[in-house]
Design brief:
The complex is a heterotetramer, with 2 copies of chain A and 2 copies of chain B. Chain A is mainly β. In chain A, 5% of the residues lie in helices and 53% in strands. Chain A has 2 domains: 76 residues, Glycoprotein, Type 4 Pilin, CATH 3.30.700.30; 76 residues, RNA polymerase II/Efflux pump adaptor protein, barrel-sandwich hybrid domain (OB fold (Dihydrolipoamide Acetyltransferase, E2P)). In chain B, strand 9 and strand 10 form a beta hairpin. The chains are: A mainly beta, B alpha+beta.
Chain lengths: 165, 503, 503, 165
């Protein structure tokens, strides 16, 4: 199986035909890769270098925390690359974004109104949790729709609070 | 004389106090809320009592319940830790009225230092310099404040009279901003402390936050254990502390220490406390406030002085004389503390909750970890995000920094996100290493992205690891790759990809 | 000058050395056998190479492979740790011949001190007292030994000339026992060291095993870092060490320290080493042997002196002068180390293997843990049973003991049995607390049963907990009991059953 | 369900009808009992006292390690007590005892011969493992039968080495 991994503007090509047959950038590499204690910590030996990283699978990428640095990696396989080639490459920002509560907490303020236009990074909601006020920001530009919470309300984790369309 | 102590707290500080009691042969009584039945302080204590729901107001803030449990269990003393009821003079009074020992200062000193305006007035009278601002009166009207503000000069800070922890605090850059920010500050102070009173303080730029640890016994002895440098803050929350401060020399240390003792004596201080100062570029220093309790960052002082501050607190409360004289206090080597919080440094430091699935502590020479969590424990949203304190000691500041770096690299906590990468970036920054930082450093001069851009680029490795994990996810198989004994790797691939982009 | 170090070892000491290298900014190269792919030293090192099967003779004892890997990886130095190849002068030679730095003494010093008979002769010549026994010659026949034995007097010890770790050692109480025990000792020595030579040493009763830590640089400076008390042993294996020794005063410390330096100088010593003495009831002391390597128990010295011995070893190997002068070495406070072994103290200390399912380390002020294991790691039968070293520091010996007790109480390792209860019993014994113990204490005066008989009897609690677990097993259900908020318990039940049987 | 727990010469009677209904020695006790992190470490609160113990279920007893002291507890329920009452109380020492290797190791010596009589505590086999020589002793008196290993042999964990009948 061929893969393309992308980190910011760098791309890497890998071919994995079983874990003892990995081709990186055209060359075979021998690696020893394993999860430690069944957790999402992975130890990899490659050419004697010992790397240990926390690799977490997110919705549309993988987060790799390696030697004190975070890498956001997008991995696509052959099939996905073909599919992407066929459609427009800018489909991601379409559709609604639902802002969910990352943790249980108390709504302290809602600096936006319905139908208001927001830019990427604008504050949408201030949520108090763990004795801190946390600002939840918009991941992209759009219009605020359907605010479902009010100031002073307690919200549960993953509760949808508003929508950006 | 008491032989059993009720610990009116939770988390790492409750564990810390239990340890001190146990090492002194005293019995320990823990209390717990619904969220904390399996917390470490409950596991380690001799006795543990349920106290109420996970909301602090129903449990850890219920002075009446705490005192009832102390009486019922036969505890003779109450240690409040920090936070919760630690700086509430009414609680200290209640404890004493119940015939129990409050392990802390006299209620009058808590009250005097708790009202920040009163505290400023009292220490000023004792000849201690304070940060310029509104003096004396605590109940200023909006009009009075608008009047005084330009005389102090901008930028300035609005601070809650009953304040602490950055609540009810606002920075004001100009007269125009004042009315809105004043309203917001009063509102926050009202909701946080039930008291909307505020005062003004000049905002010192390029200032350092340096505090002195005080110990005072009931026999008229007051000493200080040197300073802690606490300038590395974000949103007025301390993140990293060290002792000594790279900014002080022996002469200034001595002078500030004497002033700290004088300020403590002004309120007839007893037990452990901390005098916070701001020190400006020209090494001029100003009293900021006194924390009338054990401080989160007390371990750095313990590491350089060899004195166990919590044990001293208990000894003092048992009426003992201080064992150490000022002339015998020596700061040996250097200690740094990193506060490890359950929060995501890559996502605006948003708190993170969940079950800790693995915890591998850094250990070895010169490393200390104070924590209340373990693998299997659930980090709840009800309390603060501090999950552990990592403290490293070295013969020199340089050695302490290098040791802290290796300890951070070793530390593995899975299940919640932590600010460990933030600390790694701070400890790699040239300004921190050179000791050139002030209270604005983190917010104004530091960014995770910039910090990481300067590091070794292991993008190819990260990409490969991510791809194998994605492949496994796809295959839903998890066979383990065994490295063949004969190494078939191609070395040039590594050479090409493991680039070093040191800035 | 080297910038990368190959660590020719495994387990906690490999991790310890990696930490020192990292704190000095040096690259680290680990090696691993089949059993150790997921060991902590492999996880923490910058590089890691497979070296052979789980049997040490195919892996950690393969000097040729180690040197090949050092060369291939660009390591400029080899740290042998303790055990395995640490005291093999031929290996040290091989390392040097390959153009690498051996982090340890010169091969000639290893050889001189490695042959115990030669060592005794050399230090005697330098005026150092040795335990009475067969002097000089190492190749004694059975007849010669039978002849000399009664002149030394019984009881005496047969010891392997190439010995170490109690192998090839036998106690002889009378001439009649001699032939059989001599045969057994030679056989064990032959199989352990490939050398059946033995010598005799008078068995000092009521003696203490006290050793001095030596540091020597390449510029003619030799200092000692005070002593370690290592009398608590079982089957000649050290179990608990402390520094300083409760048996020495300043004068004797000074005298023995000078003798230790003299003995080291006699073999032109370089790097870290340890002179072991026996000290009899009358404080007369005798040279026992020199360990020409880092010692397992080095951390207690680090805790009281503040000197990082492993970093010093590396600095010395890089040609640096010692940073500390003898007059600046001060023993501050008291440190105790407990060796935590995977063995069952309730079943004749039988080793225990298996996967560690949980590891909760004791932490907090004055506590250090050196370990190479973690939750999820498998303890294999191939290597020794040491899984961690718990070291506690206190301002006084009493404080160190109390701290160690609370640390042992906190420590949880699940999946293998450990000797933690043994240490708890030792630390509760009045003889240990009073400092009245010798090398025979554990075997002759101590029993787990007796020790535990004196403790608080919680049999009713243990019975209840066991019964509930048995009930759950029977029910094959595991619902969690929630404590009802209103306490319906009957206090008299507790009073009746929680008996204190203090002796 | 009624239980009798025995520790050496002490016996304790418990009745457990669900974990919120426990009768100890005739009195109801309210306990909060739970496993920590799903391991064999248990935390028990009873009348405010906090106890934590390692409880391991062995073949015929439970080992409770509590505050630095080991308690060997035999627990029998009503049914077992009845059964035991009906039969002889000294049936345990009957039948063969098979000495198995507690860990992988090397047979260093076998101080007994087949058909030899041994007493409780006599050394049967010396096994080298983890760099230590470990003496395996007879748990009771009997006669050595069927020695299946020889000196110098490597044995696996749980391998039967000899039998005492």
């Amino acid at each position: 199986m061929k893969y393309i991994a992308t980190i910011e503007d760098q791309t890497f090509e890998f071919e994995i035909n079983g874990e003892d047959d990995i081709i990186a950038d055209g060359d075979h590499v021998a690696i020893d890769f394993r999860s430690i204690a069944g957790q999402s910590v992975y130890s990899m030996l490659v050419n004697g270098r010992s790397y240990e990283a926390l690799v977490q699978v997110e919705d549309d990428n993988l987060q790799v925390l390696l030697r004190g640095r975070l890498y956001i990696v997008t991995v696509e396989d052959e099939r996905q690359i073909r599919l992407r080639g066929a459609s427009s490459s800018q489909t991601i920002q379409q559709g609604d974004f639902h802002l969910t509560s990352p943790m249980p907490g108390l709504i302290v303020s809602i600096p936006v109104k319905e139908d208001q236009e927001v830019s990427e990074g604008d504050r949408l909601i201030v949520l108090e949790s763990m004795k801190m006020q946390n600002e939840l920001k918009s991941p992209r530009a759009g219009i605020v729709r359907n605010i479902r919470v009010s100031i002073g309300e307690n919200v549960d984790q993953d509760q949808v609070m508003l929508t950006i369309s | 004389m008491f032989n059993k102590v009720l610990i009116a707290n939770r988390g790492e500080i409750a564990v810390r106090i239990i340890r001190a009691c146990r090492e002194l042969g005293l019995g320990t009584v823990a209390v717990f809320s619904d969220a904390d039945r399996e917390a470490l302080h409950v596991r380690y204590a001799d006795e543990a009592y349920y106290i109420g729901s996970s909301h602090a107001r129903d449990s850890y803030l219920r002075g009446d319940k705490l005192i009832a449990i102390a009486k019922q269990s036969g505890a003779g003393a109450v240690h409040p830790g920090y936070g919760f009821l630690a700086e509430r003079d009414d609680f200290a009074h209640m404890v004493q009225d119940a015939g129990l020992v409050f392990i802390g200062p006299r209620p009058s000193a808590i009250a005097a230092m708790g009202d920040k305006a009163t505290a400023r007035a009292m220490v000023t009278k004792a000849g201690v310099p304070v940060v310029p601002g509104t003096e004396g009166e605590g109940s200023l009207s909006d009009e009075e404040i608008a009047d005084i503000a330009p005389k102090i000069g901008f930028p300035l800070l609005i601070k809650a009279t009953a304040g602490g922890g950055g609540r009810g605090m606002r920075e004001v850059k100009s007269q125009a901003e004042l009315p809105d920010l004043l309203r917001a500050a009063r509102q926050e102070a009202e909701s946080a402390f039930g008291d909307g009173n505020v005062y003004l303080e000049k905002l010192l730029t390029k200032a350092r936050h340096i505090e002195f640890q005080i110990l005072a016994d009931d026999h008229g002895n007051i000493i200080h254990l040197g300073e802690r440098e606490c300038s590395l803050q974000r949103r007025h929350q301390k993140l990293l502390e060290e002792s000594p401060s790279p900014f002080l020399d022996d002469e200034l240390r001595k002078e500030m220490g004497q002033v700290a003792i004088k300020a403590s004596a002004a309120v007839d201080y007893l037990n452990a406390g901390t005098i916070e100062f701001l020190v400006d570029e020209d090494q001029k220093f100003y009293f900021l406030e006194m924390n009338t309790r054990l401080q989160v960052e007390h371990p750095v002082t313990e590491m350089v002085t060899g004195i166990d501050i919590v044990k001293e607190q208990i000894r003092i409360s048992r009426g003992r004389k201080l064992r150490t004289k000022q002339k015998d206090v020596r700061l040996q080597g250097w200690a740094i503390e990193c506060r490890i919080n359950a929060e995501d440094p890559y996502n605006d430091f948003l708190p993170s909750t969940g079950k800790i699935t693995q915890s591998l502590l850094p250990t070895g020479p010169g490393v200390r970890v104070d924590t209340g969590v373990y693998a299997g424990f659930e980090i709840s949203p009800y309390y603060d995000s501090l999950i552990s304190k990592l403290i490293c000691w070295g013969e020199t500041r340089g050695e302490a920094i290098l040791r802290m770096r290796r300890a951070l690299e070793e530390y593995r906590i899975l299940g919640v996100k932590t600010n460990i990468p933030f600390h790694q970036n701070i400890l790699a920054s040239t300004r921190f290493i050179a000791g050139r930082y002030d209270t604005r450093f983190v917010e104004e001069r530091f960014s995770m992205d910039q910090a990481e851009a300067g590091k070794k680029n292991l993008a190819a490795i990260a990409a490969l690891m991510a791809t194998i994990v994605a492949h496994r996810e796809g295959q839903r198989a998890s066979q383990i790759v065994r490295k063949s004994e004969r190494d078939t790797s191609n070395w040039k691939w590594m050479g090409r990809w493991e680039r070093v982009n040191r800035s």
